[in-house]
Design a protein that fits this description.
The longest helix has 8 residues. It is globular and about 45 Å long. It has one domain. A hairpin with a 4-residue loop joins strand 4 and strand 5. The protein starts with 6 loop residues before the first helix and ends with a strand. It is mostly beta strands and 126 residues long. 17% of the residues are buried. It has one helix and seven strands; from the N terminus they run H-E-E-E-E-E-E-E. A five-stranded antiparallel beta sheet has the order 5-4-3-6-7.
Length: 126
């Protein structure tokens, strides 16, 4: 559920945009959303558009559904993507076979509507 700190992230995702918190004092992006910058402790945070590009930092292939809701999706890739802006984001890799995913693979954001009011940023190979 969005809260005041994460609402801008989810609103941007619904508009098919990737947005990140950005510190106007030190000039660095961060993720996950928080009220102070983890780099310099400033409270001067704004949300800015991200490039949506990055590379696979780490990943695993899920072969066994954690619940019946995921049974039709296996196998699927859960990955950490290192964004060009610096932060790392947990996501899914889509658009290729799970066994084709590699550390260092260049990826770009796309979006998946989940039904209801939630749209998730996911990544595909570039």
């Amino acid at each position: 559920m969005p809260d005041p700190l994460t609402a801008p992230y989810w609103a941007a995702a619904r508009e098919r945009r990737l947005a990140l918190p950005y510190c106007t004092d030190c000039g660095r992006h961060h993720f996950y959303p928080r009220s102070i910058c983890p780099h310099c402790s400033s409270a001067r945070i704004e949300w800015v558009a991200a490039s949506g590009r990055g590379e696979v930092y780490s990943f695993t292939v899920v072969h066994r559904a954690p619940s019946p809701a995921f049974a039709a999706a296996v196998p699927y890739v859960v990955a950490i993507v290192a964004l060009e802006e610096g932060p790392h984001l947990m996501t899914n890799i889509i658009g290729c076979a799970p066994d084709a995913v590699r550390i260092g693979m260049r990826v770009r954001v796309t979006f998946r509507a989940t039904g209801g009011d939630v749209t998730l940023p996911v990544f595909e190979p570039m």
